[in-house]
User: Which sequence fits this backbone?
C-alpha cells in the first residue's frame, strides 16, 4: 500500500513541479519534454527536410491513345481484334487460330523516351505490350520485334522485360524480381534483387483487372504492375539496344484465349 500511495502523490507532484518551473522561467517545459519525433513535421525541421511528404503519382501529361469505341489509330488483324464498351479485345477461337505471334500496332508514331499506363485482363495463353519495336514485313504482316512488357495467364512471365525476336531470339532481358544490366556480348549481369519472383506472382489479380505501368528512359526500362516494381532492364548492349520504335499489343499463338485492355494512356518524355 505504501508504494501505491507514494506513486499517487509523486506523479501529480512532478506535474506541479513542471508547472512551477514553467511559470518561474517563462519557458515551455512541456514542449521541451515532448518526444523529439513530434518535431518531424514542423516547418524548418531538419527531419522534415530529410523526409519530405510524398503524394501519389498522377497522370499529368498522359493522353489517351484508345477511344474506347473503334480501332482508329491502331492497325492489326480484325479477325482477332475489336473494340467494345471501352475495352480493346483480342480473341482467338478454335475456328480463328493464331499461327504466328502478331500485333495490333499503334500508328500514332514511334516512341522513344516515354511512359505508358494501361489495364489488362487475360483468361489464357500469353500477351503483352511491345514497345520501341520494328516491323518485319519479310516475316509477315503485323509482325514486330523488340522490347515487350510480358504478361500471361499462369504468371510465369508476367512483369518480365522480354525481347521478341531479339538478339538471341526470344529472350528475357530482366526477370520478374530482378534488375539486370545487358552489355556487349551480349552479357547479362545481375545488378540487384527487387523481391522474390514467386511471391511477386501474388501481386497479379488472376482472372481480374490489373494495371501495367512502363517507364522507358534511355537504356533503362521499368515494369510496374499494380504499383509494384516487377523488373528493371538496363540495356547497354551497343549493338542491340534500340532507342526508338513502335507500340503494339501482342496476339500470341496457342490455345484459344481472350485478352482485354482499357484505359490506355501514353506520355512522351521530352529529351533535354
Assistant:
Amino acid at each position: 500500500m505504501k508504494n501505491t500511495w507514494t506513486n499517487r502523490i509523486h506523479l501529480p507532484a512532478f506535474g506541479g513541479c513542471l508547472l512551477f518551473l514553467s511559470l518561474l522561467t517563462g519557458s515551455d517545459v512541456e514542449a521541451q519534454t515532448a518526444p523529439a519525433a513530434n518535431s518531424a513535421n514542423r516547418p524548418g525541421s531538419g527531419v522534415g527536410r530529410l523526409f519530405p511528404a510524398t503524394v501519389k503519382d498522377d497522370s499529368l501529361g498522359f493522353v489517351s491513345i484508345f477511344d474506347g469505341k473503334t480501332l482508329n489509330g491502331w492497325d492489326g488483324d480484325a479477325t482477332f481484334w475489336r473494340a467494345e464498351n471501352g475495352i480493346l479485345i483480342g480473341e482467338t477461337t478454335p475456328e480463328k487460330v493464331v499461327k504466328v505471334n502478331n500485333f495490333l500496332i499503334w500508328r500514332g508514331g514511334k516512341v522513344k523516351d516515354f511512359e505508358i499506363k494501361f489495364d489488362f485482363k487475360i483468361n489464357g495463353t500469353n500477351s503483352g505490350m511491345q514497345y520501341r519495336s520494328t516491323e518485319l514485313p519479310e516475316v509477315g504482316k503485323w509482325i514486330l520485334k523488340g522490347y515487350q512488357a510480358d504478361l500471361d495467364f499462369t504468371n510465369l512471365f508476367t512483369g518480365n522485360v522480354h525481347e521478341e525476336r531479339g538478339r538471341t531470339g526470344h529472350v528475357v532481358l530482366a526477370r520478374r524480381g530482378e534488375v539486370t544490366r545487358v552489355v556487349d556480348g551480349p552479357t547479362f549481369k545481375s545488378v540487384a534483387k527487387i523481391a522474390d519472383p514467386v511471391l511477386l506472382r501474388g501481386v497479379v489479380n488472376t482472372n481480374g483487372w490489373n494495371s501495367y505501368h512502363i517507364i522507358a528512359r534511355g537504356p533503362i526500362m521499368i515494369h510496374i504492375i499494380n504499383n509494384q516494381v516487377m523488373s528493371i532492364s538496363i540495356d547497354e548492349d551497343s549493338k542491340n539496344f534500340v532507342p526508338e520504335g513502335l507500340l503494339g499489343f501482342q496476339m500470341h499463338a496457342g490455345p484459344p484465349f481472350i485478352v482485354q485492355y482499357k484505359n490506355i494512356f501514353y506520355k512522351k518524355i521530352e529529351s533535354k
Residues 1-42 have pLDDT under 50 and may be disordered. Residues 2-25 form the longest helix (24 residues).
